[in-house]
Design brief:
Blueprint (H helix, E strand, L loop, with lengths): L1 H18 L16 E2 L1 H8 L4 E4 L2 H4 L6 H15 L3 E8 L2 E4 L3 H10 L4 E3 L1 H9 L4 E3 L1 H10 L4 E3 L10 H4 L4 H6 L5 E4 L8 H10 L3 E4 L26 H14 L5 E4 L7 H20 L7 H12 L6 E3 L5 E3 H4 L6 H32 L1
GO molecular function: hydrolase activity, acting on glycosyl bonds; metal ion binding; pseudouridylate synthase activity
Organism: Rhododendron simsii (Sims's rhododendron)
Protein name: Pseudouridine-5'-phosphate glycosidase
Length: 366
C-alpha cells in the first residue's frame, strides 16, 4: 500500500538521522550502538535503489596487502558496473559501518589481521571496546539487514564440520541464515566441510536454498557436490532467481535465502585440481583415524602439500576457508567476482520488483 511505502521511507529517514551517516569528523561523533552509513549507500536506500552488501574478513584475513585492497576495489567496481551500489561492512573504532570510503577501505586493508574477525558473538565486544572488526558472513548479514539491504555477496559460507554431530562445530553462518532476512549469494560450501549435514541443518533452520543455473548444490571449487537443491528455486534467469528473495520479503518470513552460484566453467579445471587434493586428504584422514580438533589442521596442511604449496589455505572465522593463492590472482578472482556479478543483477531485479510493487499498490488505491 501507499501508506506502507511512506511509512518505510519515514522509518528509513529516522534511521539515517540516528546514524549520522553524513556527519564529518570520522567516527568519533557516532554513539555506541549506532550504525554509520556511507553517503552513497544512504542515498541509494532512501530511493529504493539496488545495494549489495560485502563482507570485510576476506580483505583483512583473506590475502595480504595490497592484493586485498585491489581485490576489494575490483569487486566493488563489478557491483557498480552492473547497476548496484556496493556496501562493504566493517566495524571501525567501535562503529559498525555499512559502506566504506576509499580511505576506510585502504585503512582496513593495511590493518589486515590486526582487525578482529567479527561474527555475531563478537559484535558487542568489538563495539563496546571501540575496536576494529572485519565482519564475517553472520555479522555482515546482521548489519546489512538492519539498514534494509536485501542482497549480500560473499565467496563461500561456513557449514557443519565433519563429525559435527559429535563436536557440535557448526558455523554461525547457518543459524544467522535462519533468523536474518537477506539473500546470500555464495559459491556454496567447501567439501572440506560436511555438505549433506550443512544442507540438513539449513532445512532445520527453515532456510530456502537455491542454485543458479543448476539443480545441484555447488561445493565452492567444483560445480557439483552430489546434493540436490529445491527444484522450485532452480533457474538460469536472474529475474526468476530474484522471485524467491522477493517472496521472502513480502511474506516477512524472517529467514534468509541462500543462492549458490557454481564456479565459472572456465575456472573449473583449477577448482577440480584443488578438490582432488581435498578428497585425497579426507581419505587419508579417515584411514589414519584422524578426527575431532586434529582433523582440520591435518587436512589444511596435507592439501597444501599435495598441491606443492600452490594452494595455501587461510582459515577464516566460523569454518570459512579462503584458498589464498587461488583467490588472489590479480586478474581474475573467479569465484568472488562471479558472485558479485550475479548478486548485483539480483539486487537490481529486486529493486525493480519493489518499485513495481509500490506502484501497483498506489494504482490500486487511486
Amino acid at each position: 500500500m501507499a501508506s506502507s511505502a511512506l511509512s518505510r521511507l519515514v522509518n528509513l529517514q529516522r534511521h539515517f538521522q540516528l546514524t549520522g551517516s553524513n556527519r564529518k569528523g570520522g567516527n568519533d561523533d557516532v554513539g555506541i550502538g549506532q550504525v554509520k552509513l556511507s553517503a552513497d549507500v544512504s542515498e541509494a536506500l532512501s530511493h529504493g535503489r539496488a545495494v549489495v552488501a560485502l563482507e570485510s574478513t576476506i580483505i583483512s584475513h583473506g590475502m595480504p596487502y595490497p592484493q586485498n585492497l585491489e581485490t576489494a576495489n575490483e569487486v566493488e567496481a563489478i557491483v557498480r558496473e552492473n547497476g548496484a551500489v556496493p556496501a562493504t561492512v566493517a566495524i571501525l573504532d567501535g562503529v559498525p559501518c555499512v559502506g566504506l570510503s576509499a580511505e576506510e577501505l585502504e585503512r582496513l586493508a593495511i590493518m589486515g589481521t590486526k582487525a578482529r574477525k567479527t561474527a555475531r558473538r563478537d559484535i558487542t565486544y568489538v563495539v563496546a571496546t571501540r575496536a576494529n572488526g572485519a565482519t564475517t558472513v553472520s555479522a555482515t548479514m546482521i548489519f546489512a539487514s538492519m539498514v534494509g539491504i536485501h542482497v549480500f555477496v560473499t565467496g563461500g559460507i561456513g557449514g557443519v564440520h565433519r563429525h559435527g554431530e559429535n563436536t557440535m562445530d557448526i558455523s554461525s553462518d547457518l543459524t544467522e541464515l535462519g533468523r536474518t532476512p537477506i539473500a546470500v549469494i555464495s559459491a556454496g560450501v567447501k567439501s572440506i566441510l560436511d555438505i549433506p549435514r550443512t544442507l540438513e541443518y539449513l532445512e532445520t533452520q527453515g532456510v530456502c536454498v537455491a542454485a543458479y543455473q543448476t539443480d545441484e548444490f555447488p561445493s565452492f571449487f567444483t560445480e557439483t557436490s552430489g546434493c540436490k537443491v529445491l527444484s522450485c528455486c532452480i533457474s538460469g534467469l536472474i529475474l526468476l532467481c530474484s522471485t524467491a528473495p522477493f517472496a521472502n520479503m513480502k511474506l516477512k518470513l524472517g529467514t534468509g535465502i541462500l543462492i549458490a552460484v557454481p564456479i565459472p566453467k572456465e575456472h573449473s579445471a583449477s577448482g577440480s585440481l584443488i578438490e582432488s587434493a581435498i578428497q585425497k586428504a579426507l581419505n587419508e584422514a579417515r584411514d589414519k583415524r584422524i578426527t575431532g580438533n586434529a582433523e582440520t589442521p591435518f587436512l589444511l596442511a596435507r592439501v597444501n602439500e599435495l598441491t606443492g604449496g600452490a594452494s595455501l589455505i587461510v582459515i577464516s572465522n566460523c569454518g570459512v576457508f579462503y584458498w589464498a593463492n587461488f583467490l588472489s590472482d590479480s586478474k581474475d578472482i573467479a569465484l568472488v567476482k562471479n558472485n558479485a556479478l550475479v548478486g548485483a543483477k539480483i539486487a537490481l531485479c529486486l529493486a525493480q520488483m519493489g518499485e513495481d510493487d509500490r506502484h501497483g499498490d498506489t494504482n490500486s488505491k487511486s
